[in-house]
Amino acid sequence: MPKFTIDGKEIEVAAGTTVIQAALAAGIHIPHFCWHPDLAVDGNCRMCLVEVEKMPKLQIACNTQVAEGMVVRTNSDKAAQAHRTTLEFLLVNHPIDCPVCDQAGECYLQDQYMDHGLHESNVEIEEKVRKRKVVDLGPIMLDAERCVLCSRCIRFEREVTATNSFEFSNRGNQMQIGTFQNQPIRHDYAGNLADVCPVGALLSHDFRFKMRVWFLKEHESVCPGCSTGCNIHVDERDGETQRLRPRRNVEVNKSWMCDPGRKLYKDIAVTTRISGARLKRPAGWEGVAVTAALDEVGSWIKGSGNTVAFVASPQATNEDLFAFKALADCVGGLLDFRVGDPQLKLHERIDGVLQRADRNPNTQGALDLGLGKDGVAEILKRCASGSVRALVLQGPELLRSPEAVDALAKVPFIAVFATHEGPELEHAHAVLPLSLWAEVEGTFTNYQRRVQRIRKAVSAPGDARPGWELASGLLQRAGGSLPAQSAREVFARLQATVPGYAGLDYKIIGSGGRALQTAEPAAVEARA
Amino acid sequence: MATVNVVRVERNTHPGIYPILLGLKITFMNMIRTLFMGQSATIQFPEQKRVSSGRYRGIHLLTAREDGTPKCVACYMCATACPAECIYIEAGERPEKSIEKYPTRFEIDLLRCVYCGFCVDACPEEAIMMSRENDLVGTTRAELIIDRDRLMERGKLAEYGPGYRPTDHDVRRPVRIAALERLKKEHGIVPGMPHR
Amino acid sequence: MASVLETPQAPAASTSPTVRILREKLGDQVLRVDEWRGDLAVTVSRKAWVEAARTLSFHPELDYKLFLDLCGVDWLDRDGHDDRFEVALHVYSVSHKHHVRLKVPIPESDATLDTIVGVYKGANWFERETWDLYGIVFNGHPNLSRLLTHDSFVGHPMRKDYETPKRHLLKEAKQWLLKVPEGSEHMIVNIGPSHPAMHGAFRVQALMDGETIQDAEAEIGYMHRNFEKMAEERTYWQVIPYTDRLNYCSAFMNGHGYALAVEKLLGVPAPPRAEAIRVILSEFSRIMDHFICIGANVVDLGAITPFFVVFRAREAIYDLIEACCGARLTVSYVRIGGLAQDVPDDFEARARTAIASVRDVTSQMEKLLTRNPIFANRFKDVGVMSAEDALSWGWVGPCLRGSGVAYDVRKDHPYSGYEQYDFDVPVGTVGDCYDRYLVRVEEIHQSVRIIEQALAKLPKGPVITDDKKVALPPKSEVYSNIEALMNHFKLVYEGILPPAGEVYGYTEGANGELGFYIVSDGGKFPYRLKVRPPCFAIYAAFSEMIKGGLLADAVAIIGGLNVIAGELDR
Question: Considering chain C, what percentage of its residues have pLDDT values greater than 70?
């Protein structure tokens, strides 16, 4: 454990730590372009030069390991001068593009110019080297003029996706980045290229010209796309989600996120969202207030007793599942969630990077909460035999499965919580408007049994409510009660009853999540 | 500290009717000045209009390139700087790779606008300026949300004249450009390389 | 230039007598002493609050008699603040020429504080405002009710967790401001909110015994827009257009005061040319403001001629202002660190024309009014305010000087280079309406003197600082090079990032000391921006002043107080 001094602060770090990592841990920001915490060190941008006592020349902080007794200065005159001149060099051929560049607002060049540059320009537009602009690489747009040749994209392609699409071509001031014959990027992690690019050379096609990033407000959340549970930021402006972006969590997704996950924001504000409750009448659907719909469903539940069956959804948060289970337990009906057996695919990887075959974010949570009880097949069998008088679905999964159609036709009353319109809802008799993941507070448990928080980023449309609120409304009408006013309070009750979750609360889970003690260590795969 | 005691105006005087007569005289003098000496402080609006200064912050206009398309590249600087949040922009893609971006929608809500001129200050392209036009008439609110095409119309400018706009001109740049040209002419050296 | 990175820190032992005496009196109840950017701030515990205020006011060595400001700050979930709220009091010692800020932390669980109305009369409305906006209850306050917001408003809007998009339907106006004694046969008269003698929308309810006012109570807030809350969501330079709408009769001076306060916070001064131009335009604005005040005052009394006479000069000044700023009233000409652009080439000629016009109309106005017996009889010995009361109410500017206290920020704490100019500070002797009128007239003359001196030695040079973290780069640079373009972008979308800390910047507005108390957390928006509006404190005394007088006198008084709704209600 070497001890060293940086900007007058004495800190102790693990052996092998580089100066830039140690500085970051101490809250000191050393300017850099090519260094990335989750990529190999390259040391080509020369921006992170720091002064190390007793070394004649400045050293790059990203590739200098901390040694015992080292004295580092990141802002001495010599280091500041180096930062300024390096930046000036990087800007020599940089186009005057901020107005048309989507990176503006999260651009390392802009930030570091304000912090370390503030120099005058010495180059005229006419003198600048022109390179390729607006090159469409599928999900990514390339602008070679803006590139600072940091090679982050090259290393990403090499180390993370192993596709090696990018390479430098030419030399000197003609050097530029590109793919072979401008071939488009054809893997599921292209969005990360725009994230790793510190400047505007690689930009997302999807986000292109859509919004200026300084208008966006970020909210910490978790991707609901699969059981991996990548940590993300939901970027929203005035209640409209604009993009999803990975949030670094070394234990789960490092700094990455897949493209299918990035596209999930498009489901949030669409016209097919369900914003109000409705009931099926002989004359057709009738829109009603949520309380009226809850009354109707509640009276069916009460009237049917234990002939009610419940099917939960692994798309729901732990809080929703807990309330739903409380409802099922109170009534005493059949209960399960495993439509299509997601638990079998929980750990199965689709590619070697992040995605998993189970497209539900909370299968593990549902298993932990004991929702896998009676078996979906059993429920369907009872439905087919006509002994289920009412069916309450936490999501429309069961309605979508073709083998269930015949059995469901025999159930006199089906109530479903749903977020989006779809043809399957025609099989139901009552539709309750459900909030989507970006509109609620709650927790998901990923395949590693890591409990992670999602946060409310935008408001739900119309009358849509969180799942726990709907379930608790039904519970109240069925004669039980769930004394909780918020997801936080539901979770407080959850941790008191569910083994393994004991002692957790939202504050302890924090932004990085909390891994639970696993009952069967063998079941947990080595992390991605 | 030098202070003036206003007691130098004697408080307890009894000047009688004289000040009132003096006041009448001043009033009549002003009447004569106004009516017969052409020193009226008012103008015959609307037949006669005030000439505003060249910095007047009136209704905005968008400048055009030589081909008539907007100079604006939809960078949102004006919308960001606007304290009244009255500018709405949507960006689109232009075929020219050197420009890339242009506003498909650019709307200013003139009823929200406070005419502070910060949009002009914030514009990095000299695309938005203000005119001296200040008579803002409409029968509905929607009418006074003016869109890109109306902002581009410059017909009325002849009548009112340009208002608040960037004025500083660089003295350094032309010298350097001339040097670059001489370099090219005399030595055949072109800094940088052509686009390929 | 002072370093922007300088951070506030508490000196080990302050040499200030204020701190020494407070420590002697209160012992360990003095929690903290900060001296930063020349401001002295003393934090005391809640127990010692009234005692501390009393000591400041009555201790002969301190003599902080002039009440300036009292406001709340909400530190919701901020590190370093165990208690959620804070109340800050600003007072001034005329004899020692010193400001002090007294602060007290208040926990959220028990958001109460003892009132200091017994020490400073002016605290009355300021405490009401603090309760209204922050929900801090002042124990023992005579009338703790809504002041700026409507009576049926729900919540306290300046709290950081108040949801700004929330809308309220406010219907029922408060019908009774006064308690009418049971069986009283006196008549209630509502003066305003819309009344020809009221200068803007504000209302006074008077209990009349014949022509005599028995009791009166004022209601304000008709033009309240919560400028301070809006400022918390604007970058430092986006606030500038809002300041124009404070005292709109002298719009430029508000921006001047605001820019100086932010420059004090940043430690970045404006260049001398900018300061000189600011002084010239501020003095012209002061002249206009005084013209409006006097003109409108006598219109209330039935004399319309002086108002029309002075308008001729006002027009000349407005022409000058428009030539510089591009607008007559909503000038938004100052920038943090200087001015938006240099004055036009014909600035001096235009200014001299305006001066000539001011001289002309001022002499006419004086001839029309000063000796006029009708006017003098309505003004003399009406609305007398003693110096002591004036200080306690927090009166400043011409009104305070009319009561004989020679406090003028330009003289006592020169800013923008006022120390270079030779001018006098007129003071009154009686403190009545007539004195306030005479002070204003004399100030017009003094302002002309200042302008002439400033014009004569108008320095050459830039009009905005060259600090790249404060001023936008020149446009020609922005168009042609990436460095300036990036600088421009960062300044527009991120704004100016001042160091964390707090300052109280004060200037002599047309109505008196216009203060801006800025609390910065180092972010792009001001964490708290409190305006110390001079006419707010002045108008607070109005309903007390008119008690026992004639209704007609109330009309004569109000014009001379120069209450401007934009500044009063913010």
Answer: 98
Q: Which fold has domain A124-215?
A: Alpha-Beta Plaits (3.30.70)
Give the separation between CA C273 and CA C219, rounded to whole angstroms: 43
Looking at the structure, do residues B78 and B116 belong to the same domain, yes or no? Answer: yes
In a domain, B34, yes or no: yes
Measured between beta carbons, which residues in chain B are less than 8 angstroms from residue A212? Answer: 75-76, 80
Distance CA A148, CA B39 (A): 67
pLDDT at C2: 39
Separation of alpha carbons C108 and C94, rounded Å:
35
CB atoms inside a 10 Å sphere around CB A518 = 12
CB-CB: which of A130, A134, A212 is closest to B80? A212
pLDDT tens-place string over residues C385-417: 888 889 999 899 899 988 888 898 998 899 988
Where is pLDDT greater, at A493 or B189?
A493
pLDDT tens digit string along A284-307? 899 999 999 999 999 999 888 888
Domain count, chain B: 2
**Closest by Cα among A289, A272, A280, A278 to A436:** A272
Taken in order of first residue, the domains within chain C and their CATH numbers are: 17-139 (3.30.460.80), 237-569 (1.10.645.10)
CA nearest A109 in C: which residue? Answer: C486
Cα–Cα distances (Å) from C124 to C111, C393, C439, C566, in that order, read 18, 9, 27, 20
Same domain flag for B104 and B30: no
Contact partners, residue B110, CB within 8 Å, separation at least 6: B59, B86, B136, B144, B145, B146
Distances from the Cα of B26 to the Cα of A210, B16, B21, angstroms: 66, 17, 9
- E strand intervals along C280-336: 334-335
* A19 Cα to chain C: minimum distance (Å): 24
Q: Rounded CA gap, A224 and C221, in Å?
A: 49
**Would you call C487 and A113 a contact, using CB atoms and an 8 Å cutoff?**
yes
Phi/psi for C554 (5° steps) reads -60, -40
Q: At what angle do helices C551-561 and C433-456 cross, to 10 degrees?
A: 20
In the numeric block, the tokens 């192993």 are attached to: A162
Residue B178 lies in a domain: no
The verdict on a CB contact (< 8 Å) between C312 and B9 is no
Which domain covers residue B23, as residue numbers?
A: 13-42
Report CA dihedral (C97, C98, C99, C103) to the nearest 10 degrees. Answer: -150
Asked whether the beta carbons of residue A100 and residue B100 sit closer than 8 angstroms, the reply is yes
How high does pLDDT run on average in chain A? Answer: 89
C-beta atoms of A126 and B192 within 8 A: yes
Express each pLDDT in C96-149 by its tens digit. Answer: 888 999 999 998 888 899 999 888 988 999 999 999 999 899 988 888 888 888
C-alpha dihedral, B103 to B108 to B113 to B117, nearest 10°? 40
d(CA A198, nearest CA chain C) in Å: 15
- Would the CB atoms of B5 and C427 count as touching at under 8 Å? yes
With an 8 Å Cβ cutoff, are B3 and C326 in contact? no
The sheet with strand C501-509 has its strands ordered as C501-509, C512-520, C528-532
- Which contacts of A158-167 are long-range, i.e. CB under 8 A and separated by 24 or more positions? A159/A39, A159/A40, A160/A38, A160/A39, A160/A189, A160/A192, A160/A256, A160/A353, A161/A187, A161/A189, A161/A353, A162/A352, A163/A187
ipTM above 0.90, yes or no: no
Instruction: Give the pLDDT mean for A411-426.
Output: 91
CA distance A249 to chain B (A): 32
Q: pLDDT-derived band of residue A148, with 50, 70 and 90 as boundaries?
A: very high
Domain boundaries, chain A: 3-90, 124-215, 277-523
What band does B168 get if pLDDT is binned at 50, 70 and 90?
low
**pLDDT over threshold 80, residue B194:** no
Q: Tell me: domain A277-523, CATH 1.10.3720.10, correct?
A: no
